[in-house]
UniProtKB/TrEMBL annotation:
The keyword Ribosomal protein does not apply. Keywords: Oxidoreductase. This is Dehydrogenase/reductase 9. It holds the Pfam family adh_short. The keyword Oxidoreductase applies. Gene3D superfamilies: NAD(P)-binding Rossmann-like Domain (3.40.50.720).
């Protein structure tokens, strides 16, 4: 068994955790997915702290609103991470701006959830969109920005999810986040020799625009309406609703995630992973480390009971 650490060891680790890099004011950072949610708050927060922020938004409306709420230092860029030409053009613009200084921080925040539900409700396109945005798009942005981050010996922060540790539903979101975790680990090891530090943030369930329950249920209903009668009979309409664990686990304080981003960017000893939210720390991450039989028991108890398993 593991022996408990002495108090002096905890104090030493706590002190290391609080050590910050000095003279980061004016350093360049690039954040994707800043229309709303974590990315929007991060862009405004780091702008106020004196970083020179490049903030990418998917929509012109999002970019205009962010620019209006920020200082003149912050630059907004319109970016669809699934568009390779768009990614290259953004990378060229940032390269021209940062010059020999390089890019201190890259925060890969852009992401979508996409439709979720039982796997036999879904078609391949339901899987493809989240994987293209959350994984392939993130990798492409990273590859284009990597030379600039290496030049600065900076930081890369990938926004994953507890969905990268435990698959709660069917759909493309969870495979995309599992893939992100694998990419994050290989990238972290590859970059150690170059002085670049790579961290992964794993938020629990947060009440963002992407996870809006009304939107989630509406997307699920659209899929339900296309299902064959036999499948509908098996599941029953009650299966359209989220389980109790999801409804009870929503966090609302986005600043918890931004605080982890800040630590990853500014600490002398950034963490490899940052679980965020009470549900992540007390439920999802511990459950992800348990045997599969226990995971299945807990998650299946949370499911709505099937109407008729014999139909089909």
């Amino acid at each position: 068994c593991l022996l408990p650490l002495p108090t002096s060891a905890y104090l030493w680790l706590s002190t290391l955790d609080r050590l910050k890099i000095t003279n980061l004011t004016g350093k360049y950072i690039f954040i994707t997915g800043c229309d709303t949610g974590f990315g929007n708050l991060a862009a405004r927060t780091f702008d106020k702290k004196g970083f020179r922020v490049f903030a990418s938004c998917l929509t012109e409306t999002g970019a205009e609103a962010l620019k209006a709420a920020s200082s003149e230092r912050l630059q907004t860029l319109q970016l669809d991470v699934t568009d390779s030409d768009n990614v290259k053009k953004v990378a060229e613009r940032i390269k021209a701006e940062v010059g020999s200084e390089g890019l201190w921080g890259l925060i890969n925040n852009a992401g979508i959830i996409g439709p979720t539900g039982p796997t036999d409700w879904l078609k391949i396109e339901h899987f493809r969109a989240p994987i293209e945005v959350n994984l392939i798009g993130l990798i492409n942005v990273t590859l284009n920005m990597l030379p600039l981050v290496k030049k600065a010996k900076g930081r890369i922060v990938n926004i994953s999810s507890i969905g990268g540790r435990l698959a709660v539903n069917g759909g493309g979101y969870f495979p995309s986040k599992y893939g992100l975790e694998g990419f994050n680990d290989s990238l972290r090891r590859d970059m150690i020799a170059f002085g670049v530090k790579v961290s992964c943030i794993e938020p629990g369930l947060f009440n963002t625009e992407l996870s809006n329950q009304t939107k989630v249920i509406k997307e699920r209903e659209a899929i339900w309406n296309q299902l064959p009668p036999a499948t509908k009979k098996q599941y029953g309409e009650g299966y359209l609703q989220e389980g109790k664990l999801v409804r009870m686990s929503m966090n609302t304080d986005f600043s918890l995630v931004v605080q982890c981003m800040e630590h990853a960017l500014t600490s002398l000893h950034p963490h490899t992973r940052y679980p965020v939210g009470r549900d992540a720390k007390l439920l999802w991450i511990p459950l992800s480390n348990m045997p599969a039989a226990i995971q299945d028991f807990v998650l299946l108890r949370n499911k709505v009971k099937l109407a008729d398993t014999s139909a089909g």
